[in-house]
Amino acid sequence: MFDNFFSLDIPGEVLSSLIVILIIVILSIIIAIQAHFQNPLKKPKGLLHLAEIGVKFFDNFTEELVGQAIPNFGGFIMGVAVYLFLAFIFGLTGLPSPVTYMAVPLSLGLTTFLLIHLVSAKFTKWKYFKRYVDPFPVFLPINLISMWAPLLSLTLRLFGNAVAGWVLLTIVESALRDLSANIFSFMPVVESGIAAGNWNEIFLSPIPTAILHAYFDLFSGLIQTLVFIFLTTIFIGQEIPEELTINTLTNERRN
Amino acid sequence: MNTAMAAAIAILGVMPSALGEGLVCAHVIDGMSRNPEMFSKLRSTMIVACALVETTAIYSLLIAILILFVA
Asked: Which of A59, A195, B7, B14 lies in disulfide reach of B57, CB 3.0 to 4.6 Å?
C-alpha cells in the first residue's frame, strides 16, 4: 500500500514541511482543548501558559503598526512565525529543513506579497491602481518592476540564510570526516555485521557541527523569523491609511 | 577555473555589507554610551538591523553557490 506513496517523487523538504505542519496542528488542537477546559479564574499552566504569552506578544507586536484595522492580524503573524521557526529548527533532527527548498520560502513570500496588494485594494478601493503611476504616468514601467522587490527580498533572504547554513555545515562536516579518517586511520574498517562501516570517520565532527547547528539553525532561524514577521507587518501596515491605525490606538487609550 | 573565478568575483559583494554592519554596530554603541537606559531596546533593534544588512551579503553568497554548484 505504501510502496506507491513513497515512490511518488516528493522532495524530502516538502515531506518535512508536512511534518512541521502536522506538529503545529496537533499542538493547536491540544492547546484548544486545554483552553476549553481551563477555568478562566485560575492561572494557566504549561503549554497553555506558553501559548498565552505568545498570543499576547504577537498581538502587542502588530498593535502599533496595523492596529485593529485588520481583525486577528496577530493570529496570522503568530502562525507564520511558529511555522518558520519550527521549519528552521527542523534541520536539527537530521532531516532536510523545509526552508532549504525554494518553494517553501517562495510561498511564504507570496503570501505576504498577496496580502500587501489585497490590503491596499481593500482600503483604497479604486485608488489602488494609482500606486502604479505614482508621481507621474512616466513611472509606470519602474513601478511595475519595483513592485516585485518585497517578494524577491523576502524569499531570497530566507532561502539564502538556510542554504548558506546548510552548505557551510555540509562542507565542515565532510572536511572533519576526512580529517578524522586520516588521524584515526589505524582503526580497522568493520566489514560486516551490525556495526559495519568506517568507524574512524565519526570522532571529530560531532562537537563543531553541533555548535554550528546551534548558530545557523537556532540563532539564525530565530533572527530570520523575527525579521520576516517584522517586515511583513511593516509592509502591510504601510498600506493601511494612517487615520485608521491612529484612531484605534487613541480610542483604546481612552478606554 | 572560470566558474571559480566568477564565484570569487561574486563573493566580493560581501565587502560593503560588512562595512554596513560595522556602521550599524558603531552607531548603536554610540547610542548606548550616550543613553545607557536604552541598552536592551537598542540591542534588539541592532540585531534586526544587522540581519537586514546581512541580506545583501547573503545574496552574493547565494549567487556564488549557484555559480559553483548549479551553473
From this structure: B14
Cβ separation of B52 and A226 shorter than 8 Å? no
Could you report the per-residue pLDDT of B24-69, keeping only the tens digit for each?
A: 999 999 999 998 888 888 887 888 888 888 888 888 888 888 888 8
Condensed to tens digits (0 to 9), the pLDDT of residues A25-47 reads 999 999 899 888 888 788 888 88
Where do the structural domains in chain B lie, given as residue ranges?
2-70
CA distance A89 to A192: 35
Chain B residues with CB-CB distance to A159 below 8 A = 62
* Architecture, CATH, for domain B2-70: Up-down Bundle (1.20)
The ipTM estimated for the assembled molecules is: 0.70
- What is this structure's pTM? 0.81
Torsion angle of C-alpha atoms A216, A218, A224, A230, degrees rounded to 10? -170
Quote the domain boundaries for residue A42: 11-254
Distance from the B33 Cα atom to the nearest Cα atom in chain A, whole angstroms: 25
Which of A99, A75, A40, A42 lies closest to A225 in space, CA to CA? A99
User: Which 8-state DSSP code applies to residue A43?
Assistant: P
